[in-house]
Amino acid sequence: MFLWCFKPKFYKKSKSTTSYMKIRLNIVRKKRIATVNFLKTDIVDFLKNGQDSKAYTRAEGLLEELRIISCYDLIERFCDCISENLSLMLKKRECPEECREAVSSLIYAAAWVPDVPELKDLRAVLTRRFGNFIASSVNHELVEKTEWRRTPSMELKIQTVKDIANEFLIKWDPTALKLMLLRQSSALQIEGKMETGADDQKIEKEKSLIDDQSEDESVLSENWRRDSFSKGSLSSSSSSSSSSFRRESVKKKMRKKKILPYGIISPPYTKPGARNDEKA
Q1: What is the per-residue pLDDT across 218-267, written as a single tens digit (0 to 9) for each?
Q2: Distance between CA atoms of residues 59 and 165, nearest Å
Q3: What is 7-179's CATH topology?
Q4: Which of 6, 82, 122, 262 is deepest in the core (most CB within 10 A)?
Q5: What are the residue ranges spanned by the domains of the chain?
Q6: For the whole model, what pTM was predicted?
């Protein structure tokens, strides 16, 4: 205890963090193992009842839990490596080669394993002393298990179900399940092809409609121009005909009116009774 007080801060922080991390890993690992056992019992029950498709779907969840447990095992192994080489890490300012992979892998895993919050504290301690991790020195298995995970293949799922059946001494033939999965995959492929064909037909129809509309618009524009030209000619002809008709009507009116010479028309100031008086 007296010697512990005189230890550097890096040593004390790394030692305590790795010890707390191992406790945390044991707790979360037990929970994952319990879920693995539960999924295995479900798969066994489905196989006994002849529900192969349900057992196949549960195999994906089982593989995911096993992947996380394997990540925990790798992290615990790297923690042991650091705790064993802490005295060597104190002597050297740079990270020694014996624990370079462990340091880089733990710094990398802090962003991918949220179940262990102590990884963030250890990452802060290690980066403060050695800098950021080196990508080339990170464990490849940890990278494969922590990066963006793809859905497991059909063969891997069937193999896990087969292994569980052998573990619990169940006679199970996967041929029926394989045939069903192949039929489903072929049906999905046919549906995809039909959808792509329908989409192509829709696109062709839309293109033909657009072409027809453009043709109709061009025809309408041509007809409109022709109509406008014909209307202009008709209006000009009608205006000329109306003007000629007016001229002829004026000429006819002038012909009908006969201009009499001055003196024949009785002036307005004479009265018919005056002539009678003069005769009398």
Answers
A1: 555 555 555 554 545 444 444 455 555 555 555 555 554 444 444 444 44
A2: 12
A3: Ferritin (1.20.1260)
A4: 122
A5: 7-179
A6: 0.65
